[in-house]
Amino acid sequence: MTGMTRVVLAEDDPAISEPLARALGREGYAIEVAEDGQRALELASKGDADLLILDLGLPLLDGLEVCRRLRAAGSDLPILVLTARADEVDTVVGLDAGADDYVTKPFRLAELLARTRALLRRGPSESSETGPIVRMEAEARRAWFGDTELQLAPKEFDLLALLVKEQGKVVSRDQIMKEVWGSRWMSSSKTLDMHISVLRRKLGDDATAPKFITTVRGVGFRFDAPTLTS
Ligand code: CA
Question: Which CATH number goes with the domain that contains 202?
């Protein structure tokens, strides 16, 4: 997952965090959701985050305190505050707590995304993109590699979706055969290997030096790449 722009979303209300995480995912960011202030502080302190979107009203540790502690620890992570109360804004943004910008709830998604982009542009860490990412929309059954939509046969799509869902982990041949082809007995067949080689070709991947799909001998396959699913 290196090279992707990482956004920590600290929001305890799933009615806000879930659609927001999906929208941020569609923008191409890797999202980690924290449901309380303690977790937000942990994720934002790890050092690989590029932006913290921070609700002020969080359990365990409120957003203001998260903000203060991050700045006290010397973090220059850009922080975009979500607040329901406009009168809190002066305290949060500026010298007191050190947030960079704010959006008041209820907010328009387009506004929040615009502010997110603006903060990331001026953020301290230059993001170093490693290359095109794979993006999948499960419901529409569409997949993109960078800006290019992949033309995938149904089983190719299912196979890629499974590998992407389990990215970073080895998926066994048995599991693939069961989930994609609905059978176990075919697990010795060449069908799977053919589909893997087609996917590699469509992703411009090389079996001998794979960037995306790695063969784990005797076990199965592993997908390693920045990806997005929705
Ligand atoms: Ca809240």
Answer: 1.10.10.10
CA of 95 to the centre of ligand 1 (A): 23
How does pLDDT run across 96-151, given as a tens digit for each residue? 677 888 888 888 898 899 889 888 887 553 333 445 677 788 788 888 887 778 88
Ligand 1 center to residue 54 CA distance, Å?
A: 9
pTM of the predicted protein model: 0.53
183 CB neighbour count, 10 Å cutoff: 11
Cα 83 to middle of ligand 1, angstroms: 8
Distance of CA 106 from the midpoint of ligand 1 (Å): 12
The count of structural domains within the chain is 2
Same domain, 178 and 105: no
